[in-house]
Specification:
365 residues, SH3 type barrels, Elongation Factor Tu (Ef-tu), domain 3, 3 domains, six-stranded antiparallel barrel, five-stranded parallel sheet, 8 helices, 28% strand
């Protein structure tokens, strides 16, 4: 009998993933990682819906208290990053350090089950020639979540299923209704779980970082105004600066050492290249030569043509330099750069964390 542990958030996607595998003949057990108190699909509200789903399907349900690891791996990670003047991406970090790895370990060590599944929109394909598990975009490109999954290692991909990767969100909703799942009409989560819980990222960060007023300056160092704390700002931001100027101004850098926010015109926000650290090569082995790829520098942006060049040398196996065919708006340190194959823009080759530029005063986060 095939067995699988399905990660349940209490939303429609994970519910349909569990129900699908259950109806395919798998012995399914549900698992929710309790990440924090309060609102949000991974918290108390989501656990109630997940428990109700498991009762409806007649399957066991488990809750693992993961609040300490979430605090260490995500909350502390975010606070450190924003305090250093970068904008961390918590979701990929959470998938690797908080969700998939610990979930697989719990499934194996506690439940004796070797396979896990989630409701993510992505696909895993085993390539026989390279004997690697490739990560592909989902069929529904509007819901594709492969960008957030770039950091999963081969061992996790080999033991993971994404039952929704070959279908659209519309089909998922339809299946939920056909199966009579109580989550069929549940509204979709629109924000990062921390924002759902605290109302805004600023409110969350203000709990940990005391707002310290400082200068907003232009590229020549002229003071244009005051900011309310560098953690309230991010590269490319235009609104909320509180500066009267003849032309729109954007945040182009954040100097944590001087407690300054540096602004400039829109042209100043564009860069032709960036360096990426903590690289995980997913669908291919680490290359020794430059390769052409389609690179995505934020979740909602389109992937664009670029050349990815491994930085070779002692201790440099996890860094690459990316040169874009055209300058890109708002390349943001702390966010992920993820690259897909040049031919189809479907196979996720690798990804990593964007470093501050060489001209930035901030240290690498």
């Amino acid at each position: 009998m095939k067995k699988v542990v399905v990660g349940l958030s209490g939303g429609v996607d994970s519910s349909v993933a569990a129900a699908t595998l259950h109806h395919q003949g798998y012995t399914v057990e549900g698992l929710t990682l309790w990440l924090m108190k309060g609102k949000g699909q991974c918290c108390s509200e989501g656990m109630v819906d997940a428990a109700q789903l498991c009762e409806q399907l007649g399957i066991p349900y488990h809750v693992v208290d993961s609040r300490e690891v979430f605090q260490a791996e995500i909350i502390d990670y975010l606070v450190k990053g924003y305090g250093a003047g970068v904008t961390p991406l918590p979701c990929s970090q959470c998938n690797k350090a908080v969700k998939f790895g610990p979930m697989l370990r719990y499934a194996r060590e506690t439940l004796g089950i070797d396979t896990i599944a989630t409701g993510h929109y992505a696909r895993i394909v085993h390539d026989a020639e390279s004997d690697r598990y490739q990560l592909h975009r989902a069929v529904d490109l509007t819901k594709d979540q492969s960008y957030f999954l770039y950091d999963l290692p081969q061992a996790v991909l080999a033991a993971t299923q994404f039952p929704l990767g070959d279908q659209t969100k519309v089909e998922t909703r339809r299946m939920a209704a056909q199966l009579g799942l109580h989550t069929a009409e549940k509204p979709e989560s629109q924000d990062l779980c921390l924002i759902e819980a605290h109302g805004s990222m600023q409110t969350f960060l203000d709990r940990y970082l005391a707002p310290t007023e400082g200068d907003i300056v232009d590229q020549s160092g002229t003071v244009l105004g005051k900011h309310t704390g560098i953690h309230h700002y991010t590269i490319g931001q235009r609104k909320g600066l509180g500066i009267a100027a003849a032309q729109p101004l954007y945040v182009i850098d954040i100097d944590a050492g001087r407690n300054q926010v540096i602004v400039g015109d829109r042209d100043s926000t564009h860069q032709r290249e960036c360096t990426v650290q903590q690289v995980n090569w997913v669908s291919i082995a680490p290359p020794s030569a430059p390769l052409r790829a389609m690179v995505q520098i934020r979740y909602r942006s389109a992937a664009v043509p670029a050349t990815v060049m491994p930085i070779l040398g002692e201790g440099e196996s996890d860094r690459v330099r990316i040169v874009f065919d055209e300058p890109q708006f708002s390349i943001t340190p702390g966010q992920a750069a993820v690259w897909y194959d040049d031919a189809s823009n479907c196979i996720l080759l690798g990804g990593g964390i964007i470093e501050p530029s060489k001209d930035s005063p901030n240290t690498v986060f």
